[in-house]
Amino acid sequence: MPPDALAEKLTSGLLSFPVTHFDAELRFDEPRYREHLAWQASCGAAGLFAAGGTGEGFSLTPAEIDQVVRAAVGEAGGTVPVVAPATGATAVSVEQAKAAEAAGASGILLFPPYLTEASQRGLVEHISAVCRATSLGVIVYSRANAILSDTTVAEAAERNPNLIGLKDGVGDIERMTRTYARVGDRLIYIGGLPTAETFALPLLQLGVSTYSSALYNFVPEFAVEFYTAVRAQDRTAVYRMLSDFVLPYLDIRDRAKGYAVSIIKAGLTAVGRDGGPVRPPLTDLTASELAELSTLIEKAAR
User: Fold this and answer.
1) Digit-coded pLDDT (tens) for 184-196
2) pTM of whole model > 0.85?
3) Helix H segments across 141-219?
4) Active-site position among 9, 33, 141, 216
5) Are 85 and 63 in contact (CB under 8 A)?
6) Has 257 been annotated as catalytic?
7) Is residue 141 flagged as an active site residue?
8) Which of these is catalytic: 33, 98, 114, 167?
């Protein structure tokens, strides 16, 4: 998919970060993953981000990432764009971008470099190296040790025609305002804070027209309804859904580090779709927390 076509498609609707399914021995469970992707692709998502944050991409080997991306492309690529990850050091990210293009992915989500801090100049070079390695559209994820300034984003966009988007995982209003004022519609802007629904309405005013929803994994109808209310700027509906479901959900999510991922797999289990376990160093919800989440989902459905 040409970069400009990917950008247009991704901004047309809600985006999803599917979980990656593991079996009891924590091996990649491809049949269950494919079943989940088929369901996700049928519910109206505008893009699927394989092996991303919610997909525990940080816990996968490079070979497993390639396997996950190929499974996603094979199962859902004909229906919805599949965006593959590029993670870790620059050389690793370059190789993953090449592998993703060979696997038939539609685009690349470039994650922060592993562990080390970097200057803004170094981050421009990191982004540029990955963009040069592929003809696919690249979205860069600004968060953690790779928080991008407005001038960095502008320089990276100027140097790399296939850089199509910025995914924001910071939520700094001044930074986003400066970035949009400087770069404008040259890029698309994707909300990437966990849990994205919490920030979706205010960020819409800053040019962040869509976001990646982890909730879409297990309550896709709710997630799409929420997205529709945000795009319509229906504050009454947005805050009703926040109060009824999202904020109580956050109360469970915030009880342990890493639960932003674990609770999504628990949500799948709660709706009868068996999310399976997370890999260390993440930990699964307790039995009582899973029961609490199940009750919340049932209440919201009523």
Assistant:
1) 999 999 999 999 9
2) yes
3) 150-159, 173-183, 200-204
4) 141
5) no
6) no
7) yes
8) 167
